[in-house]
């Protein structure tokens, strides 16, 4: 493993010398709400301008906090500013690469500023030339009436006078420090310490990997002059963190009494306490952490350490964070802006219009609401508040570490071995190695996180309720977490139903739907089997129980049409269709689609016809969740009915639900400025939708997936018309023109199966695009299926030869497939690959010269397609079954030759893979592999699947 230590750092005159931390900048969704908090926090308003307020303390800085109105409604950290020691140092900073100068003439104290934009758009500022405030007399106080010296055990200095205090805010003296959780830890540490006089006071390293430093507290080296123990700290971000973030900012108050009085003052005003009051070890300060109305974590501190150039940097293992104080919340290390967005959502819903309840007040919890109807009261598992608890302490709703939690470690066996043995440890392995839980909990946000970052334990009560309720389900918390992580990483991309961060928060607070959670975990275990801690037979028992009992009919009237009820049915329908195809799965999907129709999920953007949710009680993100649900149902309805050969339940003309506008893994709230895009009523206009999707640039591949699915649905309609013979050629011409226009509307290189690495196309986006290409190729194949050899031999031959091209194109797509992405993609594409296999086989059998070079290309293509099905077969039944059927066909007709008239006759008897007529012809169950897991009412009919049946039923003289 490469050395991940922070090198020895010292100050020298060549660096920009900074004198002190000056101010921080934030954007808030509601500036007036924050202004109320600012006064209660102890800030003094220094100046107010349109959309901006400057706040000061009672120290020398003209302001310490700049609050601006967010233009897009999202809370945002705008960076920290430090004062240059001299104008020479300021000019030195101005000459650094990336420096952007600006004026502070409109700010209190004036001056000038330089801004640097660092990793993940985090700002760092240097200021100079400000007019400092004159500070005279004793420190002001909003809480102290009379305070004399303290009387100690052996020295009594206060005699005849009394300590007297009253309620009020803890007034802020100055900004003390801020901290970052950074993905580019090593690079950013080097930049800050190479260019400025930041020197580590303490460096903390991983307990197992002693060459991996995970956090540093840095002070400003002022030579002999003492400065605060840290003005800036930086943590190495866990590997799951996708964006660096600000952890908290901290402000000095006068003393312990003022801090405690301020704590109670904030609590009585309903603000959210995070952690405190307590005393830190490193830095020694008394701390008190809260969250402001936008969700940012903010600290009052008192009695902190001072250091100078004679104070040596210490390097020590990660350890406890506090000497005394409350238990550390599990969420202390989280990105506070995620909570900020959640709070903003609540404000947008109109919390003031929602009553509180006595049960939540008794439990010391804030009332929370969802779109579901639920019984009143605090979340399941929370306890009644004990008598005597102070109002301030009752405000905190954080979950804390328990002794049981601190007994575990997070190292997997492989990682544990790597951590304890000499030799090379590869970087990708190192990323997953994490601290023992006791140190994660004690050290909170200043530590490496668990690989299941963001997935805390369920309460013991909830876990016990699972055992026995679901047959075969007896997982520990850690095992459940592992499978949940794997589901979102590997299975969820194929059926994106959830806002991942939002669902994990529900999991965190115990409000996640239990049936839904068990279904997620069980499906992950089935698809990604074998699981070493869950026996396959137990997984099968639990899955069977879910399929048999978790249906809309078993749901309560309150949750029958809830979002989670629909999601549960979607997951079960997705699983059953690919694992046990047949009438049961087809009926489940049809019932699901009709339920969605009944509440207007197909009319989400037509409030008059959609009754799925109360629009006055949901956010745009909640509505977007319903859109994801509908498009999942749309795909399931499409695949199941195309393969059965029946009309879909969801009609194109009935859809008034916009395409997706927010990635399912996006943590930011949905912007209402993103335009809505809809599928057209007429397939001939589908190209316009594709152009709009590409132009919009949001969720391009996902939304184009709906476009190509629509094209495939139209081709499925042509398959049904073939049996009728009516309107067939007119419809073929229409769909053929629509697909041609759709192709031309796509970006250049979109239909090129190779990954566009130069444009930064990710592997998963590449495979979603490959799926979309397969849709278009299958639609093209269906369009070219010839008909009527005797009536129009030339036309028949032209179409027959034309059917070879989409088959070859399907082979070209499969050539680009990476087998590590199989779980990420809907296995319904196996029907497309199987179709190409069958058509290539027909081309082989109808070729006059079996030794022609053309046959070698067919052999190669079929070999790749069969390998593709074999890969999917390790996870799903459908590809395993299709592969088995094709091999039987190949074996049976290995030396058979077909005339074009015979090909025409076969094609005229064409049936889709799961069509009832195709099923009922075959009743030999003996050839079905025992592990295919087909529905019993289906397996008995599937001796030869698909239309490709060369037997005496067709009176062919073979």
From TrEMBL:
Its main location: nucleus. SMART domains: Fungal_trans (SM00906). Residues 174-303 form the VOC domain. This is VOC domain-containing protein. Keywords: Metal-binding, Nucleus, Transcription, Transcription regulation. Residues 388-400 have a biased composition (Polar residues). Residues 370-411 are annotated as: Disordered. Pfam families: Fungal_trans, Glyoxalase. GO terms for molecular function: DNA binding; DNA-binding transcription factor activity, RNA polymerase II-specific; zinc ion binding. PROSITE patterns: VOC. It is found in: Nucleus. GO terms for biological process: DNA-templated transcription. One of its GO terms (cellular component) is nucleus.
């Amino acid at each position: 493993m490469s050395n991940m230590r922070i090198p020895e750092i010292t100050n020298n005159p060549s660096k920009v010398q900074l004198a002190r931390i000056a101010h921080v900048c934030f954007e808030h969704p509601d500036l007036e709400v924050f202004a109320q908090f600012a006064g209660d926090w102890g800030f003094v308003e220094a100046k107010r301008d349109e959309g901006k307020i400057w706040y000061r303390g009672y120290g020398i800085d003209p302001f310490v906090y700049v609050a601006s109105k967010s233009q897009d409604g999202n809370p945002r950290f705008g960076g920290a500013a430090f004062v240059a020691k001299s104008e020479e140092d300021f000019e030195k900073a101005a000459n650094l690469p990336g420096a952007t100068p600006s004026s502070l003439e409109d700010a209190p104290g004036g001056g000038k500023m330089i801004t640097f934009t660092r990793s993940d758009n985090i700002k760092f500022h240097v200021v100079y030339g400000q007019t400092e405030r004159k500070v005279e007399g004793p420190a002001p106080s909003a809480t102290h009436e009379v305070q004399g010296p303290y009387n100690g055990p052996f020295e009594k200095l206060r005699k005849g006078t009394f300590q007297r205090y009253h309620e009020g805010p803890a007034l802020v003296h100055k900004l003390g420090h801020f901290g970052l959780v950074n993905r580019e830890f090593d690079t950013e540490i080097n930049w800050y310490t190479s260019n400025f006089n930041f020197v580590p006071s303490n460096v903390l390293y991983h307990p197992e990997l002693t060459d991996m430093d995970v956090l540093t507290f840095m002070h400003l080296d002022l030579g002999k002059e003492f400065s605060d123990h840290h003005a800036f700290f930086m943590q190495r971000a866990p590997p799951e963190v996708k964006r660096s973030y600000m952890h908290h900012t901290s402000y000095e108050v006068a003393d312990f009494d003022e801090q405690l009085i301020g704590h109670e003052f904030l609590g009585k005003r309903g603000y959210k306490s995070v952690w405190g009051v307590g005393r830190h070890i490193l830095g020694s300060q008394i701390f008190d952490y809260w969250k402001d109305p936008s969700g940012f974590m903010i600290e009052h501190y008192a009695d902190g350490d001072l250091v100078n150039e004679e104070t040596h940097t210490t390097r020590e293992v990660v350890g406890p964070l506090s000497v005394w104080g409350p238990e550390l919340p599990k969420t202390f290390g989280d990105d506070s802006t995620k909570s900020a967005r959640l709070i903003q959502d609540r404000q947008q819903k109109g919390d003031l219009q929602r009553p509180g309840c006595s049960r939540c007040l008794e439990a010391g919890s804030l009332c929370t609401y969802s779109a579901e109807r639920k019984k009143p009261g605090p979340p399941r598992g929370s306890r009644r508040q004990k008598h005597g608890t102070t109002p301030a302490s009752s405000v905190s709703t954080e979950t804390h570490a328990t002794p049981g939690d601190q007994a575990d470690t997070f190292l997997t066996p492989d990682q544990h071995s790597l951590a304890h043995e000499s030799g090379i440890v590869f970087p990708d392995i190192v990323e997953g190695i994490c601290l023992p839980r006791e140190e994660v909990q004690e050290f909170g946000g200043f530590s490496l996180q668990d690989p299941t970052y963001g997935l805390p334990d369920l309460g013991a009560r909830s876990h016990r309720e699972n055992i026995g309720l679901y047959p075969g389900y007896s997982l520990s918390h850690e095992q459940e977490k592992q499978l949940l992580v794997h589901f979102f990483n590997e299975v969820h991309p194929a059926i994106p139903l959830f806002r991942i961060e939002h669902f994990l928060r529900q999991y965190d607070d115990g409000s996640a739907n239990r049936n839904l959670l068990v279904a997620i975990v069980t499906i992950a275990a089935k698809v990604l089997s074998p699981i070493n801690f869950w026996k396959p037979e137990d997984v099968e028992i639990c899955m069977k129980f879910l399929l048999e009992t978790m249906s809309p009919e078993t749901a309560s009237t309150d949750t029958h049409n809830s979002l989670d009820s629909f999601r549960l049915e979607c997951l079960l329908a997705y699983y059953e269709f690919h694992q046990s195809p047949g009438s049961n799965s087809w009926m489940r999907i049809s019932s699901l689609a009709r339920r969605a129709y009944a509440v207007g999920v197909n009319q989400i953007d037509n409030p008059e016809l959609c009754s799925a949710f109360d629009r006055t009680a949901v956010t745009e993100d909640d509505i977007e969740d319903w859109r994801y649900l509908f498009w999942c149902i749309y795909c399931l309805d499409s695949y199941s009915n195309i393969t059965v050969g029946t009309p879909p339940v969801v009609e194109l003309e009935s859809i008034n639900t916009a395409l997706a506008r927010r990635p399912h893994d996006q943590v930011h709230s949905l912007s209402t400025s993103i335009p809505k895009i809809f599928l057209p009523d007429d397939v001939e206009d589908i190209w316009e939708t594709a152009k709009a999707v590409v132009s919009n640039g949001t969720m391009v591949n996902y939304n184009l997936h709906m476009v190509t699915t629509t094209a495939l649905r139209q081709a499925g309609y042509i398959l049904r018309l073939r049996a009728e013979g009516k309107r067939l050629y007119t419809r073929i011409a229409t769909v053929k023109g629509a697909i041609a226009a759709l192709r031309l509307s796509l970006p250049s290189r979109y239909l090129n199966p190779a990954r566009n690495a130069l444009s930064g196309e990710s592997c998963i986006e590449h495979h979603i695009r490959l799926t979309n290409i397969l849709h278009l190729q299958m639609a093209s194949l269906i369009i070219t299926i010839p008909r009527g050899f005797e009536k129009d031999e030339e036309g028949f031959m032209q179409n027959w030869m034309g059917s070879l091209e989409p088959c070859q194109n399907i082979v070209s797509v499969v050539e680009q497939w990476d087998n590590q992405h199989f779980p990420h993609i809907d296995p319904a594409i196996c029907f497309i690959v199987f179709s190409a296999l069958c058509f290539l086989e027909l081309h082989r059998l109808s070729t006059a010269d079996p030794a022609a070079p053309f046959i070698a290309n067919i052999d190669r293509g079929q070999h790749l397609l069969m390998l593709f099905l074999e890969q999917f077969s390790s996870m799903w039944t459908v590809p395993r079954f299709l592969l088995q059927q094709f091999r039987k066909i190949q074996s049976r007709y290995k030396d058979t030759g077909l005339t074009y008239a015979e090909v025409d006759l076969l094609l005229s008897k064409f049936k889709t893979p799961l069509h009832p007529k195709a099923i009922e012809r075959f009743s030999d169950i003996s050839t079905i592999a025992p592990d295919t897991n087909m529905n019993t009412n289906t397996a008995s009919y599937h001796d030869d699947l698909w239309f490709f049946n060369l037997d005496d039923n067709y009176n062919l003289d073979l």
